Amino acid sequence: MHQPNRRAAVFAVLALAAGALAACGANEDNGGGDGTASGDSTGSGSAATIALLLPESATARYEAFDRPLFEAKVADLCPDCTINYFNADQDETKQAEQVDTAISQGVDVMVLDPVNGQAAAALVADAQAAEIPVIAYDRFIEGADYYTSFDNEKVGELQGQALVDAVGGAGDVLMLNGSPDDPNAAMFKSGAHSVIDGSELTVVGEYDNPDWSPDNAQAWTTDQLDTIDPTTLAGVYAANDGQAGGVIAALTGAGLPADQLPPVTGQDAELAAIQRIVAGEQYMTIYKPIKGEAEGAAEMAISIVNGEEVADTTDFQGVPSLILDPIVVTTDNVADTVVADDFWTVDDICTDDYADACAAAGLS
């Protein structure tokens, strides 16, 4: 979802202000995970330091999109700013240590995507006690100063509606939800249930998957298929693409041909998922235009360090927030969504293994 034009106008002013600072070289990646800095702060002493703390790297989006998009936008708005980057590798304790490190480094603002959203409230309080404002990124944190994400209840609603529409009537379905520690997972689950529970579908098995693990998804689905004939399943709700991949591996492992799989949902528009959609193995995914989210967080951070008001926010649970809209992707609109936005190119998607499927989908 592209950001409103008025936000762009506000931050064009900020970009000009940032340009007045002593210029330095473009951001240069010096590593990550342990508080390594990207960028060069050899300019004026007024240059700010921003901590970016992401939860894990197993999900493709964080290293491939969120981090570079955020860093590029900060470099554009504030060439003299430095980013201290951390990745928690899905380890809650490690993330707490990284927050402590960022506090000890005296960063000016913290952008935090928590491993555990509920527990992260204490991390926010620690940062704020050190007079460091916190932007909750992608996952909501109680008490954060700002929040940027997508309409996560709507994500689940869109997934659930897509599954209902694909089945087109009554039938048995499995549900694989996200991690119980992830506040977004609860919203996805609630949104999906709000649609599925009001339909003719019957949930015959449901799983809240720790760490969103694709391996767990495959193992759990395989266990379910010990007592459920896979040919009787009308569909599977998988809360994200990693789990969808595990589900599809379990279904094909149980003997279902790839062209006879039931509709399987997903989220994140991962490359493997887009390829599965083109090939007819996965029914849909949710595309969340990460560029708007990452750049929105960068703009918030630069507003804060410049002492400017953060523009164009809405209220989400008492926190000024930037909430963006998710988009359903099926084989019918791959070209109009992820390809049109340069999220993935046709060359990315249409490797040799998918050349025929791409031709049939009009992508070659």
From TrEMBL:
<feature type="signal peptide">
    <location>
        <begin position="1"/>
        <end position="22"/>
    </location>
</feature>
<dbReference type="InterPro" id="IPR028082">
    <property type="entry name" value="Peripla_BP_I"/>
</dbReference>
<dbReference type="GO" id="GO:0030246">
    <property type="term" value="F:carbohydrate binding"/>
</dbReference>
<keyword id="KW-0732">Signal</keyword>
<protein>
    <submittedName>
        <fullName>D-xylose transport system substrate-binding protein</fullName>
    </submittedName>
</protein>
<dbReference type="InterPro" id="IPR050555">
    <property type="entry name" value="Bact_Solute-Bind_Prot2"/>
</dbReference>
<dbReference type="Pfam" id="PF13407">
    <property type="entry name" value="Peripla_BP_4"/>
</dbReference>
<feature type="domain" description="Periplasmic binding protein">
    <location>
        <begin position="50"/>
        <end position="309"/>
    </location>
</feature>
<dbReference type="GO" id="GO:0030288">
    <property type="term" value="C:outer membrane-bounded periplasmic space"/>
</dbReference>
<dbReference type="InterPro" id="IPR025997">
    <property type="entry name" value="SBP_2_dom"/>
</dbReference>
